[in-house]
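Hey forum,

I'm writing up a methods section and want to include a predicted complex as supplementary material. The small molecule is nicotinamide-adenine-dinucleotide. I've pasted the protein sequence and the SMILES. Can someone with a working setup run it? I'll credit the forum in the acknowledgements.
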Amino acid sequence: MEDLENKIQQIAKLIINSENIIALTGAGMSTESGIADFRSPGTGLWEKVNPDEFASIHSYVSDTGKNLKFMLEMGMNIFKSNPNKGHKSLTKLQKLGKLKGVLTQNVDGLHKRAKTKNVIELHGTAHEAICMRCHTVYPITKMIDQVLRSNKSPSCELCQGLLKPNAIFFGEPLQSETLEQADKMISNCDLLIVLGSSLLVYPVAFYPRKVLSCGAKLVIINIQETDMDDHAEIVIHEKIGDVMPKIVEIVAENLE
Ligand SMILES: NC(=O)c1ccc[n+]([C@@H]2O[C@H](COP(=O)([O-])OP(=O)(O)OC[C@H]3O[C@@H](n4cnc5c(N)ncnc54)[C@H](O)[C@@H]3O)[C@@H](O)[C@H]2O)c1
Ligand SMILES: [Zn+2]
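Reply by user p_vandermeer:
Happy to help. Structure tokens for the complex are below, copy them as they are.
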């Protein structure tokens, strides 16, 4: 316990002494909002479904109906969720002038809903649908309404192409423009705080090494170990919502 309080103090100090802080967040950021991550033992979605069968672009195109059922379930969970203490603490840190931006793997939109600014959603968003043929973007409600009404594959009103959620599926490339923005954000950073990412999915898995090679410091908060723990200045294996508000409170007190 003493050790944890000590680490919380040390992270607050690092934040106070850094100028260009970026948070890198994964699905663990939103588990406390009731959205399951993929890889946590016992609760991760991968224990229930096979990623190749459900979250890949190939399976979506070849068996849209089966995939839509899974996606609607996951989507509904996302749409009824709210930002948690972790998301709110990042917004507070940003208001204190101590967080430049957030790079997230999440598609739930909860950072934006918590009113954090300068958020890059690397894997897109579950709140939109996109036409796979002409790339027109629609609010996701348009796609859901169609599926619930007709029980058929959802299609674009302009070209009848297949609609999919505007999130990156396995087997799909990330948008090059988004990657460029992320690179730019990372290149100036002097402290990277990784929150709730297993750091197993690329390109996010690269970012900690990249910032370290430029002389930046790394902090990791995750309930489990990650491969980058040994390279981090400070690692805390606790829930984000239990530690981030405390860290931000100390930063706020010291900046006043
Ligand atoms: N909320 C979402 O939008 C959502 C949910 C599931 C999956 N995804 C997608 O799946 C991919 C999964 O990759 P990932 O690396 O982000 O997730 P992951 O499932 O691989 O890893 C989540 C990590 O968070 C940790 N964790 C879980 N709850 C935590 C908590 N309360 N506090 C601290 N740590 C916690 C786990 O130990 C794990 O290491 C992402 O790329 C994302 O696109 C998104
Ligand atoms: Zn179209």
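Some notes you might quote in the supplement: The first strand starts at residue 21 and ends at 25. The CA atoms of residues 20 and 188 lie 7 Å apart.
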